[in-house]
Amino acid sequence: MLSKSQIMRGLQCKKSLWLRTHKPEERQLPEKVEGRFEQGTSIGELSQKLFPNGALVEFQKNNLELMCDQTQALIEQGCGTIYEATFKGNGVFASIDILHKDTRGWHIYEVKGSTQVKGIYIQDSACQYLAVKDRLDIASINIIYVNNNYTRFGDLDIEQLFCVEDITESAREAELNLIPVVTELHDIKKHTEEPRIDIGLHCSNPYPCDYSKYCRRHLTEPNIFNLYRLKKEKSTSITEMEW
Fold it and tell me: Less crowded by CB within 10 Å, the N or C end of the chain?
């Protein structure tokens, strides 16, 4: 099984996925990442107020199976709103920020601290759909993001703070393309040799990689990346020529 985070890592760089599996000790979090994690947690908790009185599946770092069992138990008990609902299916483990049921069926809501829907969020939601589609009747897939046009006066208005965008069609299309990728990423994890992938724009797009220092270890100090305000595209192309 691959977790959603592993798939997203592999989509950005297969070498990063292999390193996370075989050389976890070389991982170094980029600057300010922890602050973004905390911000994401705060946004996630606030968004739950859009669907109040739900049940939370507690995170179990080393026991995703237990999270799946707890999710299934809540569904069988008739719970209509579940936070961090976790499923496994089609080779994927994935947690859903908010899973809500109404007369149409179940609705997936992925929460982001961004002020717009980005392409990478479609892939993210496609992973969730791939994991859950054989278990539940999914009526819609949605992104909840921050409304940057909202100005607070008095009490916080949760309905105004967030925007909700339906991405069902895009996520289902992305899920179809994701199935062969999951198989490939499973194979990458099993390889005994480190993939030969040079540094490039993918090292920071869409997210800063936590193995950047490891992959740049062959560069002397100072190097092209130390030059002030040099565009990433230019520094990368120069480095690739030197490498």
Answer: C
What whole-number distance in Å separates Cα of residue 59 and Cα of residue 186? 24
pLDDT at 32: 55
- Asked if the structure places residue 196 within a domain, the reply is no
Domain count, the chain: 2
62-83 pLDDT, tens digit per residue, is: 899 999 999 999 999 999 999 9
The alpha carbons of the chain give a radius of gyration, in whole angstroms, of: 20
> Distance between alpha carbon 79 and the CA centroid of its chain, in Å?
25
Residues of the chain scoring pLDDT < 50: 34-38, 228, 234-243
C-alpha closest to that of 216 among 26, 20, 41, 23: 26
Same domain, yes or no: 128 and 215: no
pLDDT (0 to 100) of residue 242: 42
CA angle at 172 for the pair 167 and 175, rounded to the nearest 5°? 125
Domain CATH code at residue 44: 3.90.320
